[in-house]
Design a protein that fits this description.
The chain contains 17 helices and seven strands. By secondary structure, it is of the alpha/beta class. It folds into three domains: 133 residues, Rossmann fold, CATH 3.40.50.300; 67 residues, Orthogonal Bundle (Helicase, Ruva Protein, domain 3); 128 residues, Up-down Bundle (Zinc Finger, Delta Prime, domain 3).
C-alpha cells in the first residue's frame, strides 16, 4: 500500500512493516515516527526481539504503562528473525486486538521478508486485521534507473534527456544494483558534489563507487532473462565478494532442473501455467520461464543438465576434460551458455 497517502488520511494505532530492503523499511518507519510526533506521541520505547529468552512480558507491560510526562506513546517492536515464537505470537495478537480501542499508544512492528506460511499465521493475521500492513518490496534491476532518476529529482538534479541520460542511469544502476542503501548514499553524494540541475555521464562516472551487491539467486534470474553482459558482471562480482562457488552452482542448476521438470510435464500434456505451479515456480521466475520454455528443445535441456552435472564435479575439486579447471571459469561457461540461448528466445 502507499504509506504516504494513508498517513495523510489519518494516523492509525498499529503499523506493521515487512520486507528485506533496509533503506525502504527505515524510510517507512521514519515517516510513521514523524507523523506520530506531530500527533503528540512524544514518548518512544524500542524492543528488539533477540534470542530464545526474550522477555515478551516487558513488551506487553510497556503497552499498558504511561510516562508521567507524556499522554501518548510510540512502541516499536523489531523482530529481525521474523519468528516471534509462541509467547511473542500471543503478545502480538493481544496488542493487535488492543490497538482498536487504545488511541494513546501507537505500535510499530518491523519484520523481515516473510514466507507464505508465516503470512498465514495467526499473529500476522491479527496485525494485518487490526492495523495497517506495509509490504516493502525490493527495487528490481529493471526499475532501478527510474528509482535513481526520481531520487535525483527530489534533490533538484537530473540526467540529460534521451539516450545519453538513459546511459547515465544504466551506468549508475550497474554500480549500485542490489545495494539500495549504498545507492541512496551515492545519490546524496552527488547532491553534495554538484549543484542542482543536469548531471553529465562523466560527473556520475567520476563520483559513483562500485557498490553493487549480487546474490546467486539474482544471477539465476539474469541467466533466464538472457542478460548476457549482466550475467558476466554478476559472476565477476560474486567471485570478488567471496561467494561460495558451490552455492552459485546450486542456484543455476536448480533452475535447469526445474526447466527440465516443467518441460517434461508439458510434454505429458500439462498446460504450462499448471506445470509451473506444480513445480512451485512463481513471481519473476514464472514470467521468465513462461517466455523461454515453449521454445526450448529437449536436446538443449539435456545438454544443460549434463553441463550442470559436469560443473558440480568441478566446483567440488574434480577435473573434467574440455572444461576449465577453475570453478568460476566453469560456472562462467555454464551460465553464459544458458543466458545466450535465453537471449535468442
Amino acid at each position: 500500500m502507499q504509506l504516504a497517502s494513508q498517513l495523510q488520511r489519518g494516523l492509525k494505532s498499529l503499523y506493521t512493516l515487512h520486507g528485506d530492503e533496509p533503506l525502504l523499511i527505515q524510510e517507512a518507519a521514519d515517516a510513521i515516527r514523524a507523523a506520530a510526533r506531530e500527533q503528540g506521541y512524544t514518548e518512544r520505547t524500542v524492543h528488539t526481539v533477540a534470542g530464545a529468552h526474550f522477555d515478551w512480558g516487558e513488551v506487553l507491560a510497556s503497552g499498558g504503562s504511561m510516562s508521567l510526562f507524556a499522554d501518548k506513546q510510540l512502541i516499536e517492536i523489531r523482530v529481525p528473525s521474523g519468528k516471534p515464537g509462541k509467547d511473542g505470537s500471543q503478545v502480538l495478537q493481544q496488542m493487535a486486538e488492543a490497538a482498536r480501542d487504545n488511541h494513546s499508544t501507537l505500535t510499530l512492528v518491523s519484520l523481515p521478508r516473510l514466507d507464505a506460511a508465516t503470512l498465514k499465521g495467526a499473529w500476522f493475521a491479527a496485525l494485518d486485521s487490526f492495523g495497517v500492513t506495509v509490504k516493502v518490496d525490493p527495487v528490481e534491476r529493471q526499475a532501478l534507473p527510474a528509482w535513481i532518476a526520481q531520487r535525483l529529482q527530489q534533490q533538484g538534479q537530473r540526467v540529460a534527456a534521451g539516450e545519453e541520460g538513459q546511459r547515465t542511469l544504466q551506468f549508475f544502476a550497474d554500480r549500485v544494483e542490489g545495494n539500495l542503501l549504498a545507492a541512496h548514499q551515492e545519490i546524496q553524494k552527488l547532491g553534495l558534489l554538484h549543484p542542482a540541475g543536469e548531471l553529465s555521464l562523466e560527473q556520475v562516472e567520476n563520483a559513483v563507487l562500485n557498490v553493487a551487491r549480487y546474490t546467486p539467486f539474482k544471477l539465476a534470474e539474469a541467466v533466464l532473462g538472457g542478460q548476457v553482459l549482466r550475467v558476466q558482471r554478476m559472476l565477476d562480482g560474486l567471485q570478488a565478494e567471496g561467494e561460495a562457488a558451490v552455492l552459485v552452482h546450486w542456484a543455476l542448476a536448480e533452475d535447469i532442473r526445474t526447466l527440465n521438470r516443467v518441460r517434461g510435464a508439458m510434454d505429458a500434456g500439462r498446460p504450462l501455467p499448471m506445470a509451473l505451479r506444480e513445480n512451485r515456480v512463481w513471481g519473476v521466475k514464472e514470467k521468465l520461464m513462461e517466455r523461454v520454455l515453449p521454445l526450448l528443445k529437449p536436446a538443449t535441456l539435456a545438454q544443460w543438465l549434463q553441463d550442470a552435472h559436469t560443473v558440480d564435479g568441478i566446483v567440488k575439486g574434480l577435473k573434467q576434460s574440455d572444461w576449465p579447471a577453475d570453478p568460476w571459469g566453469a560456472l562462467n561457461r555454464m551460465a553464459l551458455r544458458v543466458a545466450q540461448a535465453c537471449a535468442l528466445k
